[in-house]
Write a structure and sequence with these properties.
The complex is a heterodimer. The model of chain A has no long low-confidence stretch (mean pLDDT 84). Chain A is an alpha+beta fold. Chain A has a six-stranded mixed beta sheet with strand order 8-7-1-6-5-9. In chain A, strands 18-19-20-21-22-23 form a six-stranded antiparallel barrel. Chain A has twelve helices and 23 strands. The longest helix of chain B has 20 residues. In chain B, the strands form four sheets. Chain B has a seven-stranded mixed beta sheet with strand order 1-2-3-4-5-6-7. Chain B has a seven-stranded mixed beta sheet with strand order 8-9-14-11-10-13-12. In chain B, helix 38 packs across helix 41. In chain B, strand 19 and strand 20 form a beta hairpin. Classes of the chains: A alpha+beta, B alpha/beta. Chains A and B meet through helix 2, helix 7, helix 9 and strand 20 of A and helix 5, helix 7, helix 8, helix 18 and helix 20 of B.
Chain lengths: 484, 1034
């Protein structure tokens, strides 16, 4: 009993269910493939009469309340972290064998207590929303087999008898081998090992021999151990509470020095910083910063933090502060030949953070014209890490006069004569039209009720000689800009 | 001021136009335009429809085309003369035939050489001039314009101006005007029409998304900027070009120069060029007809002679002798090649066709109406349809036509593939960004075919997963309604071939069909008919191939069949029909036919013709079926709508069953002339719209009233006429089909083993899978032996009178060429062992596995598993071992033989059927309450019963008011269930998706026709039953 395996059956589904309380008790399934080839990949026990491989439409026919879900990597990561933490309670030597499956090297552990500890893991994880099976055996492979067959804990003491009736799929044959063996009527590991190994070699080659050995439980291997995941957190409680920025910045510098050291020791850097200020009125102020580039540079961090804190006004005095650094591998990148890097990325992001704090993050970015015929339709894009070289203006077609847009447009009243604008009257403009060009009509997004738009545009020259662009949208006139 | 719209595209520009030619024509009329030029892309696909609409609505339909050039620019051309049109078609044909489908490009050199008789426009935003101006500036635009000017000269090139109310377009127009004036070229206003109305802009946008493989949300500036490219009135266009009146005036001037109209096509059917020297076509036809008549009738006297003289005189008068000789010669060719051929359709009304051996029905004996086929008043050519064996035999005849008339002298007619309900939802749904799973679910819920649904499209979408309150629902539905019925692409007609004297490609452009070795023309059969282009239908019938092959199989056993001589009154054949034991029989094997046969109880050959004709949408909708059957059974009196109708309807007991009867009623009671009757026939056959038929109905109604036909009788005749538009058979056609139906039933009764062997060899065809056919055959006492590399041929054959040895081609996934190689090896010497077989054949590892799994290697191994074990040996793939002499097979495998269930599964996996017991036999113990299908006929009507089995057929006929028919097959036969619409809607997915079902319901038994009226439906729980192919919604 040298190895244990903690296995979460239907891991992806379990992770999804654990992340969303509303799925409790409902039949759920995970689909794979697209379009007509979409079929069920995993299915929860509540979905009776459905098995993996069944077409999604047929599955929905058989189980009307079935909820088909996509995989959620975040939910899986959270569940993995929980499982890993639990595995470390058995031994410090843990391997992530697969998603939802950890193998533990039990060398040196007290054999008499291991089964009990495995039971404890299962109970603890079950309380946390993960149904786990645990198996223990002399080799990692056998322990994995044991976990698959456990209800919920199984310790293998007689490997040969144990293997005999196990389904062949556990040994993970190649698809073509699975087809051949199915044709031979071989459905169990025992059935395979009953065939002469040499004959298998003759028919299925090296991969077949490896399969045979896996079926016989003869395979062993060295685990690829994982380190416990470290969270890089620092906290401080103020007594008395602080009112000015200096003590806060001082403390943050200390934090930064410490956390940065830990990060460097682990061979990682921070990609994000999380700042929490606990306030005297029990409220808290939280903020996360994406660093211009992952780093462990204390001064750089502090520039970002200080730049932001200068704009923050809290509702009460600060009683505590917490800084969390999210680790990441150091970034190694080569600049593109035709890309222009930012001269001072740190300063750039520092300024962006300041702007975001003032106007809101969703209102910071680079305005880009949307791909639509709707005039002056703009969206904000997050700034790129590099500044692309601007494209030269096209030489053709000639653009005629340039429209300088008024933002916002000027609302005006327009009097028509024979259907054409005749006078314009508004807060900043009052004039008579000398000549007109138009109307121009544009409309679009008819397929989006509420967003469908239809605009009538005129270009008018007034008695004053200026040329304006007028627009009428839902009977409301405005001056969009001046052409010069 | 007259304005002609000289640049319009329809949906026949395939995803580049949002309206049908008919809708554009309607808008043209409504806008009071004097004429319009349809310029579809690289073709004249919609030209005939526009021509016909123009004639009906009184506007000029001018012929034009957008030519896509080799540099992807688009040059609109307008056709001025017949010679220009011919050149245009030739040029397009050349471009289409050298390019993959949809990628034809015209070379500038070709346009420069072949433009006499065309006028050209500089084009819209895709035109060479504007593209150059936009992308490369004025100088490049001058160059592009100069090239056009040098090709067409100042008299035949017009500078096209369009105003779509878009900012900035005047800068471009200013350039065009300036350039035109500098070159002395005339300006021409067009609206570059892409849709009939502003509302159809939605369709154009959706088509843009389909073309660009994107969604409306993502298409951005690929979509139209506004909806202005519709058919505008002359006044609206004049207002738009008020500052350039000459651009409007020039449309009228140019239209005046376009003399060509499609009625000046100049098409002529080819002469028969094998007439012996010194004889005319007329004389030769007469000689061959009389000779044939002597063979058919024994002597040509009296009634026969009078009929032949009458027909031949008319054929000569109408100039059709060459046509009859050409068709006759094709039949001679087919028979010389050993290919069965039989004419069908209205040609069977002709004694000349019968005498020439084109048809097999004696129209004189059968009292058929010659006028249905040919009459003096007919403006078009008669159709002669030939039934040939499907597959290779038919292809040989088609290729012979190409050989005789050349690749440019003959082609298949097109079949316009339109967007139907399912494809519409898929295309529009994708454009709207609906998720794939919803679209898939919709497709699965609402199975193929456009059968009427019992729930609205809105509810269908909800069932597929679209929320009831989805804000886009209304728009989606509206767009679907607009898109449905528009052309999506061009397919080829199942067998219609068009011939021409000289080059056919002068009259209509030809394209490559997707099938290798075939060319297709740009018009469908209605277009050809409208243009007076004659079509010969070379139709492939699986059953003709079966009859031919069964005859060969019997001949190999020294017992050849001559179908012309089989007795037409065999009581055993009629017994088979009366008992509805007709699985595999032509035309009378469907569930609906089987449900009628016990009531109809055919007892004569003519009864078979009625049986074939009666289960059609026409008679069913016309409420003809029950009255006929009741009168036939003596339960209702035979009455006639009018005493004058008695001679016409006597044979069908006062009920209108055949198209000829409608025509004769129109002539006898309505006083229609032969020409008017022919117009009526064409209106019945015209499927694109009901306008023609409605006009004819009104005309007939007036005529009947004028002849003192009672209102009740008039209503009955008009109702029958309406129902025939839903598809009914002409009597001659029914008799032709009845010949094949009778022959297939005779074969099943008298040569059953050959019947099943030939049916299996010609799959897929008919209603039933091989699995069902084998079970049916076993119930008739036929033994089926499994495929075997030791015993089988490639195809199935007879080993004894009652024994079919299945062919190796029944093993799925095994290449025919390798099988033929193996059989050749076996002919050189039998396989002595499995090792010997493997050494001397070229089967791949996968094929060996399939053969072993199917049991085809059992003659060389103890059992399937042993074969499977031995075929996997790697030594087999080693060249050293392969060239070594065969040795005794190695020791036996360590594997156990397959169980019964495993063998069954292996059979279905590799063959799709089993020669053993039906899978339901295995499932029976777990279904103690299920009634075997064969026992249902003994049950008391009203009894609540449970039936179970694999689904062999699902049907929802348009005539059944939403009811669904399901046929379940078990080890004793088939059981039919009827599902009410409400139950179907509730269990739609289960019914459509599950391969095997359990149905509980009440037993019905009406005159020997047994059904279960379903009350509960659920899937048959997994009991190891393999899946079986079913025949659904056809």
């Amino acid at each position: 009993m040298n190895y244990a395996v903690l296995l979460v059956p239907s891991f992806v589904l379990q992770a999804l269910r654990r992340a969303d309380a509303s799925l409790a008790g409902k039949p759920i399934a995970l689909a794979q493939g697209e379009g007509r080839k979409a079929c069920i990949a995993e299915v929860s026990p509540e979905a009776t009469a459905i098995e993996p491989g069944l077409a999604v439409t047929l599955a929905m026919a058989r189980c009307p309340g079935l909820v088909i879900l996509p995989a959620d990597p975040a939910a899986e990561a959270e569940a993995s972290r929980l499982l890993l933490a639990s595995a470390f309670t058995l031994s410090p030597r843990v391997e992530k064998t697969a998603d939802g499956c950890y193998t533990v090297d039990l060398s040196g552990a007290d054999e008499r207590r291991t089964e009990e500890q495995m039971q404890a893991c299962v109970v603890e994880l079950s309380a946390a929303g993960l149904n786990v099976r645990a198996g223990a055996a002399p080799t990692p492979l056998l322990a994995l087999y044991a976990a698959h067959r456990a209800e919920p804990v199984l310790v293998v003491r007689n490997p040969k008898a144990f293997l005999e009736s196990l389904p062949l799929a556990l040994a993970e044959p190649l698809p073509n081998h699975a087809t051949i063996l199915h044709g031979w009527g071989v459905t169990t590991l025992g059935g395979l090992t009953a065939l002469p190994k040499a004959e298998i070699a003759n028919r299925l080659g090296t991969a077949g021999v490896e399969l045979w050995e896996r079926a016989a439980g003869e395979t062993t291997r060295v685990l690829r151990l994982v380190e416990p995941s470290k969270t890089f957190v620092a906290e401080w409680a103020y007594d008395p509470p602080v009112e000015s920025m200096e003590p806060l910045l001082f403390r943050l510098r200390r934090f930064a020095e410490c956390v940065a050291l830990e990060l460097r020791g682990a061979g990682v850097v921070a990609e994000r910083l999380g700042l929490t200020l606990h306030l005297e009125d029990d409220a808290s102020y939280q903020r996360e910063f994406r660093l211009p580039e992952p780093s462990a540079d204390v001064d750089g961090w502090l520039r970002v933090l200080q730049g932001h804190l200068e704009t923050v006004r809290t509702s009460a005095r600060v009683v505590g502060v917490r800084l969390v650094a999210s680790p990441a591998r150091p970034l190694e990148k080569q600049d593109g030949l035709f890309e222009t890097g930012l001269r001072d990325p740190a300063m750039f992001w520092e300024n962006l953070a300041r702007l975001g704090a003032i106007v809101g993050d969703d209102r910071v970015g680079t305005p880009v014209l949307r791909d639509t015929w709707k005039p002056d339709s703009v969206a904000l894009e997050k700034p790129p890490g590099t500044v692309p070289i601007p494209e030269p203006d096209p030489v053709h077609p000639p653009r005629g006069l340039t429209l300088r847009r008024f933002r916002p447009p000027w609302p005006v009243r327009v009097e028509l004569d024979a259907g054409r604008p005749f006078t314009i009257e508004g807060a900043t403009l009052r004039d008579t039209v000398r000549s007109t060009q138009g109307p121009f009509r544009m409309n679009g997004e008819w397929w989006r009720p509420g967003d469908a738009w239809s605009i009538e545009v005129w270009r008018v020259q007034t008695e004053s000689g200026a040329i304006y662009q007028l627009a009428r949208d839902h009977q409301q006139w405005c001056v969009e800009g001046v052409l010069d | 001021m007259g304005y002609f719209e000289l640049h319009a595209r329809s949906a026949f520009s395939f995803l580049r136009g949002g309206s049908s030619p008919e809708d554009i024509a309607k808008a043209t009329s409504a806008s009071r335009l004097p004429g319009i030029a349809l310029c579809d892309r690289n073709g004249v696909y919609g030209a005939v429809r526009m021509h016909v609409a123009g004639k009906e609505n009184g506007f000029r339909a001018l012929v034009g085309c957008e030519l896509v050039m080799e540099d992807d620019t688009v040059v609109p051309v307008l056709i001025a003369t017949q010679a220009g049109y011919h050149r245009h078609c030739e040029m397009l044909t050349t471009a289409h035939l050298r390019a993959p489908k949809g990628e034809a490009r015209i070379r500038w050199s070709e346009l420069a050489a072949e433009n006499a008789g065309f006028y050209a426009l500089t084009g819209d935003e895709e035109g060479p001039l504007r593209i150059a101006w936009r992308q490369r500036g004025e100088r490049a635009a001058h160059e592009a314009g100069d090239r056009l000017a040098s090709i067409f000269g100042p008299d035949r090139l017009f500078v096209e101006l369009q105003r779509h109310l878009l900012p900035g377009e005047e800068i471009e127009n200013d350039f065009l005007i300036e350039w035109a004036r500098s070159k002395g070229l005339p300006l021409l206003a067009t609206n570059g029409v892409t849709q009939a109305t502003p509302q159809a802009r939605n369709v154009a946008d959706v088509f843009t998304c389909v073309r660009e493989h994107t969604t409306l949300d993502k298409a951005g500036r690929k979509l139209a900027r506004n909806a202005e490219r519709y058919v505008k009135t002359p006044e609206a266009m004049a207002a738009l070009f008020a500052d350039l009146p000459e651009a409007i005036e020039n449309t009228e001037r140019l239209a005046g120069l376009l003399e060509f109209k499609l009625s000046d096509l100049g098409y002529r059917f080819p002469d028969y060029d094998r007439v012996p020297a010194g004889e005319t076509q007329d004389e030769y036809l007469r000689r061959m007809t009389i000779f044939g008549a002597q063979q058919r009738y024994g002597s040509v006297t009296g009634k026969v002679k009078r009929q032949l003289d009458r027909e031949l005189a008319l054929i000569e008068k109408l100039g059709f002798s060459g046509y009859f000789l050409i068709v006759w010669d094709l039949c001679v060719f087919a028979r010389d090649q050993g290919i069965m051929v039989q004419g069908r359709g209205s040609a069977a009304n002709s004694a000349v066709c019968y005498s020439l051996g084109i048809t097999a029905v004696d129209p004189i004996g059968s009292k058929l109406l010659f006028e249905r086929f040919l009459s003096e008043g007919r403006s078009d050519w008669p159709d002669i349809d030939l039934d040939l064996p499907s597959g290779e035999g038919r292809e040989r005849v088609i290729q012979e036509v190409y050989n005789r008339y050349g690749r440019r002298g003959s082609a298949m007619t097109a079949n316009v593939i339109t967007l139907r309900s399912k494809s519409t939802m898929r295309e529009v749904g994708k454009a709207f960004g609906m998720p794939d799973d919803v679209l898939d679910r919709f497709s699965n819920l609402f199975h193929g075919g456009d059968y009427p649904q019992t729930i609205e499209l809105r509810e269908q979408l909800q069932a597929a997963g679209i929320a009831e309150n989805d804000v886009r629902m209304d728009l989606l539905l509206d767009t679907c309604r607009q898109v449905q019925g528009l052309p999506r692409h061009l397919g080829q007609h199942s067998g219609g071939m068009v011939l021409s004297s000289g080059q056919l490609s002068r009259f209509v452009p030809l394209e490559n069909a997707s099938m290798p070795g075939r060319t297709v023309l740009q018009w469908d059969k209605s277009d050809c008919e409208d243009m007076g282009i004659i079509k010969i239908d070379l139709l492939g019938l699986g059953m003709v191939a079966v009859l031919e092959e069964a005859s060969q199989i019997c001949a190999q056993r020294g017992d050849p069949i001559d179908y012309a001589r089989i007795p037409k009154d065999d009581p055993e054949v009629f017994r088979l029909m009366q008992e509805a034991d007709t699985v595999g029989c032509f035309q009378i094997e469907s569930r609906a036919q089987m449900a009628t046969l016990p009531r109809m109880k055919p007892a004569t050959f003519y009864d078979v013709a009625i049986q074939v004709a009666i289960i059609r949408p026409g008679p069913i909708q016309g409420d003809a079926v029950n009255p006929y059957l009741e009168r036939r059974a003596g339960r209702a009196p035979v009455v006639y709508p009018d005493e004058r109708a008695r001679p016409i309807l006597e044979r069908t007991l006062g009920v209108v069953l055949f198209q000829e009867q409608i025509l004769r009623l129109a002539m006898e009671l309505g006083g229609f002339t032969a020409a008017e009757a022919d117009d009526l026939r064409r209106a019945i056959g015209f499927t694109r719209s009901t306008d023609r038929l409605n006009r004819m109905k009104e005309k007939l109604r007036v005529a009947l009233r004028g002849n003192n036909v009672t209102e009740e009788a008039t209503d009955y005749i008009i109702k029958s006429l309406s129902s025939f538009a839903l598809y009914g058979f002409p009597e001659s056609h029914a008799i032709s089909f009845a010949l094949i139906a009778y022959a297939s039933a005779w074969l099943k009764v008298r040569k059953p083993a050959a019947f099943y062997a030939a049916l299996i060899n010609n799959q897929p065809m008919g209603f039933y899978s091989v699995a069902s056919l084998i079970q049916d055959g076993k119930r008739r006492g036929i033994r089926f032996l499994p495929p075997s590399v030791v015993h089988s041929d490639e195809k199935s054959r007879l080993d004894a009178e009652d024994t079919v040895r299945l062919g190796l081609k029944t093993v799925q996934g095994v290449r025919a060429k390798v099988v033929q190689g193996a059989l050749e090896a076996r002919r050189r010497g039998p396989f002595e062992s499995l090792a010997d077989f493997l050494r001397r054949t070229e089967f791949s590892a996968k094929e060996r596995r399939a053969l072993a799994t199917a049991g085809a290697l059992n003659g060389l191994a103890e059992h399937r598993r042993e074969a499977l074990w031995r075929v996997e040996s790697m030594e087999l793939d080693d060249d050293l071992f392969r060239s070594a002499p065969a040795t005794e097979d190695a020791e036996l495998s360590p594997l156990e033989a397959m169980s019964h269930l495993e063998r069954l599964r292996a059979d279905y996996t590799t063959l799709g059927f089993t020669v053993g017991a039906h899978p339901m036999k295995l499932a029976r113990p777990s279904l103690p309450d299920a009634w075997p299908a064969s026992s249902l006929k003994h049950g008391k009507p009203g009894t609540r019963v449970q039936i179970a089995g694999s689904v062999s057929c699902r049907q929802r006929p348009g005539t059944a008011k939403g009811f669904v028919f399901i046929t379940l097959e078990d080890e004793t036969g088939t059981a039919n269930a009827i599902v009410r619409p409400q139950l179907f809607e509730r269990e739609r997915l289960i019914i459509n998706m599950e391969p095997a079902l359990v149905i509980v319901g009440r037993l019905q038994n009406e005159q020997g026709v047994v059904h279960v009226m379903a009350e509960e439906i659920e899937r048959l729980p997994a009991v190891g039953m393999p899946e079986q192919r079913s025949h659904d919604y056809h």
